[in-house]
Amino acid sequence: MSQSVCILGVTGSIGCSTLKVLEQHPDQYSVFAITGYSRIKELSEICKQFRPKCVVVPSAKMDELQQLLKLQNIADIEILTDEAGLIAVAQHPEVDVVMAAIVGAAGLLPTLAAVKAGKRVLLANKEALVMSGDIMLQAAQDNNALLLPVDSEHNAIFQCLPQNYLQTERNGEPKQGVKQILLTASGGPFLNHSIEQLRKVTPAQACKHPNWSMGRKISVDSATLMNKGLELIEACHLFSIKEQFVTVVVHPQSIIHSMVQYVDGSTLAQMGNPDMCTPIAHALAWPERIQTHVPPLDLFVHSQLDFQEPDIIRFPSLRLARDAMKEGGLAPAILNAANEVAVASFLQQQISFLEIPQVVEHVLNYVQNGLADSIETILQTDELARQVASQRITQLESRS
Fold first, then answer.
1. Whole-angstrom Cα distance, residue 217 to residue 204?
2. How many alpha carbons fall within 13 Å on the CB side of residue 43?
């Protein structure tokens, strides 16, 4: 039977890759709903090709989308708006699969709505799990939702673990012979830069990832290694494992996407060309596999694979994320909120590259931690952390 898909964040890199996979399998999947934020012309073109039943945009963009659809003689698509619209399509009874690909904290509530509605949720929005890990996972268990990782690293770990690993007891200890998880990182575009070189980094340079095609925010996170820090927190939640059992390994080629080590000395690795269509297709069809356009890995071309330890002196964001996971409670949500504000300010050239982790550390020290026992508490703390981050950025600007 054909499955109906909702793509939250369809105009981003993950959304576009999802459409590529769906396009190859029209008999198995149909697009029921899509959402976009600012790229309204691209959104209208996607509507023209895939003819979803619903589309969600900010209310300020509704007229623009209506005009574009009218020019294309498309009159049978329902337009919803804002957060209420995102939640409505994520939990819609006709939707089978939800691709959660909205970047940042904005994806939390619609992703949680999909989980509570018992959907197969393909998780590309790591921030949602970073902010609300225990709540999200409990909701998945309570509502028989299937939460499958799409980040290439977490998808690789998932493929290297025993098939029923996620169904066993969640106590933070490795089980079923697992010793530790090796989470790979490309190291980003500044892997070999000195501190002095990092002081002069521009947004354009930070957004130019050597291996992956990604949005601006996640590209900057990759450059600071905060992306790997957020992924470390995500891995701890997804696989119910304490941070001490997750080791970050810098692997510049991005061919091995992550590994799992076992107590018998075995290390299982998932390898492939750096293309997000592979983990998307895996999560869509799991436990089956479907074809993609991604070519198989040519080991004669990729004959050199390098590995090294991350440098947390030059890239302190990774240390901050690990410390936040150790501390637990609201600390990961505080970390994420501060980082989102700091990265946006860097992209607007308000602060320097090296000031991004400085802002995050300031906010972590300033905002009081507590129990992440409700979505309301998490969102209130998120807002407070953003305010403190903005105030710190204003201080830094006044000094420069």
1. 12
2. 28
Residue tagged 């069809």 (tokens)? 285
Q: Cis before residue 58, ω within 30 degrees of 0?
A: no
Q: Which of 162, 132, 56 is nearest to 373 (CA)?
A: 132
Q: What is the pLDDT of residues 244-282, one digit of tens each?
A: 999 999 999 999 999 999 999 999 999 999 999 999 999
**pLDDT tens sequence across 153-193:** 999 999 999 988 887 778 889 999 999 999 999 999 999 99
Question: Using CA atoms, how far apart are residues 253 and 97, in angstroms rounded to an integer?
Answer: 32
Tokens of 11: 């105009």
CA dist., res. 18 & res. 25, Å (int) = 11
Instruction: Please state, in angstroms and rounded to a whole number, the distance separating the CA atoms of residues 266 and 249.
Output: 17
DSSP secondary structure of 20-50: HHHHH-TTTEEEEEEE-SS-HHHHHHHHHHH
Q: Among 226, 155, 235, 223, which Cα is nearest to 187's?
A: 223
Contact indicator for 223, 158 with CB cutoff of 8 Å: no
CA-based angle 143:107:216, to the nearest 5? 145
Buried b (16+ CB within 10 A) or exposed e, 76-108: ebebbbeeebbbbbbbbeebbbbbbbbbbbbbb
Q: In whole angstroms, give the CA distance from residue 8 to residue 72.
A: 23
Query: Could you tell me which residues come within 8 angstroms of residue 359 by beta carbon, excluding any fewer than 6 positions away?
Result: 338, 341, 342, 345, 351, 389, 392, 393, 396
- pTM comes to 0.94
What is the predicted pLDDT for the residue at 1? 79
Q: Which phi and psi (to 5°) does residue 261 adopt?
A: -100, 140
The predicted model gives 44-50 an average pLDDT of: 96
Q: Is the pLDDT of residue 211 over 90?
A: no
Residue 163 burial by CB count (10 A; 0-12/13-18/19+): exposed, middle or buried? exposed
Nearest to 250, CA basis, from 180, 321, 306: 306
DSSP string, 108-141: HHHHHHHHHTT-EEEE--HHHHHHHHHHHHHHHH
